[in-house]
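Each field is set out underneath.
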Amino acid sequence: MGAGPQTHGVVVGRGLFHRYACQAAAMVELLEAAVAEMHDRAERFGGRTRTFLLSVEFPFLVVLVDELAFLTAYQPERDLRKRAEAAIATLTSQGRSVGCAWSARCKTRART
């Protein structure tokens, strides 16, 4: 899954992603979909295994977020920002054990 607010960056590899979003609300929905997948996997794996095994049925899910600050620090819609932060926190704390991870990119404010 890939998400980024600009017409360059993540969009260059758009064809590589199972799902892609470039508007703030859609980007948050993408993160929430990853959390839903994570919960589904946790429910299916619960009590059966403690180690994630990569398979065709359960590929390793990676969510790539370009311009993270667009969803967090610079997001003017408070509810949207809180939803993004909640999804990110959940993926960060619970995702690895069921084969879900995320990676984000941020720009520095100062250009050198």
Observations:
- Helices lie at 24-45, 78-94.
- Residues 4 and 11 are 7 Å apart (CA to CA).
- The mean pLDDT is 85.
